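Memo to structure team: turn this sequence into structure tokens by end of day. - J.P.
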Amino acid sequence: MMDFRTGWLGLVLLASLSAVQAPAQAQTSPNPPAVRVLTLQDCYTLALTRSETLAISREEIKIAEAQYWQAVSALFPQISFSLSERIQNSAGSSISGGGDSGGRRDRIEGRLSFTQTLFSGFREFNTAASLQALKRSQTEQLKRDRQLLYLDGATLFYQVLSQENDLRILDEIVANLEALRQELQERVNIGRSRRGDILAAETQLADYQTVREQVKGMSGASRELLSFLIGVPSDRYQLKDTMTLPETEKLDAYLWRSGARPDITAAAESSTAAERELSASKGALLPTVTASGNFLALEEPERQQEWDILISATIPVFDGGLRIAEVKEKEAALRSTRLSFSRARRLAESEVRQTYNTFIYSASQYVALQKALRTARENYEVQKSDYGLGRTSNLDVLNALFNYNNFQRREKSLETQLRSNLVALQVAAGEPEQNSETRSVKRETSQP
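Reply from structure team:
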């Protein structure tokens, strides 16, 4: 029994000692990672370095470049050198076994050979030109993908900012309603207000607390989405907006710039590639002329012959309609790419018009909303003052406070939406923040 008590007391002392040492260990623990302050340009740079889609596009460009050089190689002669040794026994002699080795004959040759296509309907030229146009198309599409990534990042960036601003306003609203509820409680205690006034304030307070929790959930989800895009944990960054709203430009300026959008240029290059592929297919209907030659650089025993050249021509006569079908296929592909080019131009113009109208109307709405916010704030101050003098009811004060809080939230939400609409307009015109894009591209190309 004594041993049990001794062991039990020892465990208690050990637990007490651990509890005393725990705060000291907490003090010596390393500092938590610092929170990074990120602007929109910082988020865009981080997203560029992490996007698998852009990395795949860059590899596809490298594939197109390699295919181009493969096509170019067909324009040059194919040169090879072969070295051979022939060992042959004469009739009636044997190499192995007790035969006479005098009948053995050896021959060594070193032959330099070449093959050059003289004419093939310019198929190699057209194929190489088609692949070069395809590479330019993919390069332009990569630029457009960067712009769309910038738009996606900006949308999430301002979505997170809008929700965080909404949370700050909701915190202020909840604090104001809590103070109002306490003030009403004091007035009820002295008989200057009714119990129903407190219940009305508490109902509105509970409603805003519920809305605040909903916004918290949406804000957490948005931060996680942005975290996935930029590669920074959601609790390790803080957003800072540095955008200044410029003066509104005319629609014609944005429409004119949209004509040089990378996706439109990519569609035009795809059409050029299809034209070259069609020319290469038509070239298959023409004769093919090749020249091949051999130069005997090494020979033992020697002969009088040193070199030979052979020129041959192949004329397609009948192949079951295979080449004709290929030509028809390329003609259909060319018409398809031309339609895609026309559609890309129309879509670009439509996107510019839509985003321009959205930006203009949101700017006008923002100006009008600021006036309404000032009026609602003034109305709330007057109603609150009159309520203190007993000239109005608590319901009037709560309605004025509700309107003022509602305009506050709408004004902040519309401000961030206005900035997001400006980015959408820039991307639709094909000119989003070129400075940040250039800086990011330089950073990518400098990596090994």
